[in-house]
């Protein structure tokens, strides 16, 4: 029987797929320790969250491992080169969290524009008048800038354009111009120039060496003092100290953040205290629909690999012809 180690919980429908395939699912084992290491040493597959860092040293601890599964899009906590070198497949579910994450980014944008959290807290703690001391803005006719126009960015663009009548700009050097045109977006080749025009900026890019720290002091300075920043991508895309400085100095109006660097953030992180910031704990895709889609998707991908069928979403496709088929050592 093939063993699948679960770092975190999996939706019952995902577990059913593993069980029906004849696999033993063990976990969740979220904390590193003797039990998890013992299971990992004999596991044929692992399904992980964003919190477990999988590098060459970790992969070397199992001679039976054939596939690492990551529900969701991001695989920045997995060393793809090391996995490929050790002949281990890496699979993920890039389609599954799209709608939930785009909706969450929209929720943050609306909440920022209307001062919902600030008014809620003021009304509850200091009374009616304190809940009315924020003057919101309408979204109609405002300019939204998207950094990244992949699945989530594209969905967000449609919601903003069709649902709220916003003008949508995009900075994404990796897309073809026709994609921006099809989505009704105006493509910019230079990030600072786009930022200067925007009332809202939402980040939807993957974390890569090129995007780490992409939004720093210079980019924040380029934004309007009335503009808001939204990040539902990855924390390290933003230079947090620079963002904190910009928010304290009112260089920008506020921020809506679902991701941080590191995660979880330290309890004394100023972003958790600033009045002009709305924070959520990396839950953009954490809806009943999103969790089910990611769990089912990753279970199907893991099942395919363990049954020697090429998966749909193989993050390191070059490994396939040389993948592990049995224990090595």
The number of helical elements comes to: 12
What is the succession of H and E elements? EHEHEHEHEHHEHEHEHEHEHEEH
Termini separation:
20 Å
Strand content: 5-15%
Mean pLDDT, rounded to whole units?
A: 96
By secondary-structure content and strand pairing, the structural class works out as alpha/beta
The total strand number stands at 12
Which stretches are low in confidence, meaning pLDDT under 50 for 5 or more residues running? none
Q: Helicity level, as a percent range?
A: 25-40%
Radius of gyration: 21 Å
The main pleated sheet reads as:
7 strands, parallel
Write the layout of secondary structure elements.
Layout (H helix, E strand, L loop, with lengths): L2 E4 L5 H9 L3 E3 L7 H9 L2 E3 L8 H4 L7 E4 L9 H6 L3 E4 L5 H17 L1 H11 L16 E5 L3 H14 L2 E5 L5 H6 L3 E2 L3 H5 L4 E4 L13 H6 L5 E4 L8 H9 L5 E4 L19 E3 L8 H19 L23
Parallel strand pairs: 1-2, 1-3, 3-4, 4-5, 6-7, 6-9, 7-8, 9-10, 10-11, 11-12
Helix pairs in contact: 1-12, 5-7
Protein described:
The protein has 329 residues and is of the alpha/beta class. The protein has helices at 12-20, 34-42, 56-59, 80-85, 98-114, 116-126, 151-164, 177-182, 191-195, 217-222, 240-248, 288-306, and strands at 3-6, 24-26, 45-47, 67-70, 89-92, 143-147, 167-171, 186-187, 200-203, 228-231, 254-257, 277-279. The strands form 2 sheets. Strands 8-7-6-9-10-11-12 form a 7-stranded parallel beta sheet. The protein has a 5-stranded parallel beta sheet with strand order 2-1-3-4-5, sandwiched between helices. It starts with a strand and ends in a 23-residue tail after the last helix.
């Amino acid at each position: 029987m093939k063993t699948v180690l679960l770092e975190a919980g999996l939706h019952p429908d995902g577990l059913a797929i593993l069980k029906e395939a004849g696999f033993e699912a063990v976990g969740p084992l979220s904390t590193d320790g003797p039990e998890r290491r013992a299971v990992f040493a004999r596991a044929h597959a692992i399904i992980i969250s964003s919190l477990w860092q999988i590098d060459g040293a970790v992969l070397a601890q199992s001679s039976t491992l054939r596939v690492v599964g990551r529900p969701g899009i991001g695989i920045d906590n997995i060393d793809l080169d090391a996995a490929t070198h050790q002949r281990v497949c890496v699979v993920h579910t890039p389609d599954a969290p799209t709608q939930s994450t785009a909706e969450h980014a929209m929720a943050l944008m609306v909440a920022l524009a209307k001062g919902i959290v600030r008014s809620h807290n003021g009304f509850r703690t200091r009374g009616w008048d304190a809940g009315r001391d924020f003057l919101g803005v309408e979204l109609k006719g405002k300019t939204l800038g998207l950094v990244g126009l992949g699945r989530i960015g594209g969905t967000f663009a449609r919601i903003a354009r069709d649902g709220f009548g916003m003008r949508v700009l995009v900075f994404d050097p990796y897309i073809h111009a026709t994609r921006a045109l099809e989505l009704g977006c105006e493509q910019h080749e230079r990030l600072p120039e786009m930022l200067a025009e925007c009332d809202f900026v939402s980040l939807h890019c993957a974390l890569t060496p090129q995007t780490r720290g992409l939004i720093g002091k210079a980019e924040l300075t380029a934004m309007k003092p009335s503009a808001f920043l939204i990040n539902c991508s990855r924390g390290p895309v933003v230079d947090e100290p620079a963002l904190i400085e910009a928010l304290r100095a009112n260089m920008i109006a506020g921020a809506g953040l679902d991701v941080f660097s590191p995660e979880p953030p330290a309890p004394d992180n100023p972003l958790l205290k600033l009045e002009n910031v709305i924070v959520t704990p990396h839950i953009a895709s954490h809806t009943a629909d999103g969790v089910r889609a990611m769990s089912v998707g990753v279970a199907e991908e893991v099942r395919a690999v363990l049954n020697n069928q090429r998966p749909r979403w193989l993050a390191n496709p070059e490994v396939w012809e040389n993948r592990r088929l049995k224990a090595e050592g």
